[in-house]
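Lab notebook, bench 4. Still working through the backlog of constructs that have no structural model yet. Next entry is a single chain of 186 residues. Request: give me the structure tokens for it.
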Amino acid sequence: MIGEKKARGRKAVILDTSAFIAGLDPFSLEAEAFTVPGVRDEISPGSMCFLRLKVAEESGKLVIRSPGEEALRKAREASAYMGDAIKLSDVDLELIALAIELKEEGYEPIVATDDYAIQNVAERVGIAFTPLATFGIREQLRWEIYCPACRTRFPSDIGTRECPICGTPLKRKPIGKRRGSRADRS
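Model written out:
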């Protein structure tokens, strides 16, 4: 495809809400900047973060784009496999899916986020990430989902955040870890 050749090797930074809260200015990036519509909705109108996002969007420095269904499916599968599905919002999944989609288009995507669950799933699907105000994950974790009240264990793709047996909010605990392969550990 023509678009793929054009994007091949170009860097893309996918910005989470935490990137704007941390003060990241899309104009300071040498790479192309992207985010999803839900990030705009998570930022308070009238705040400096919102102003920064709006100016970047209106100038064309920031592209606000929704990912396609196939990329969303891949993001959901990866988050379920890792056990992060109960921690990720729809906006979080869209960010991961957008990174997957951009990678498939030939970009070299990196997700700018302080959200550990996003980082964990991004690493699972081979997407680089960079934390902003935190150290970021040191190890990739798989999680077991369980109910702290009735002690029932559930598959990681349960699809609900509450125990279907007793209604208690589900929790998770690590069942496996793998040392991260992220190159930018500074």
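Notes after review: The helical segments are 2-7, 17-21, 37-42, 48-59, 69-82, 90-104, 116-124. The longest strand covers residues 171-179. Flag for follow-up if needed.
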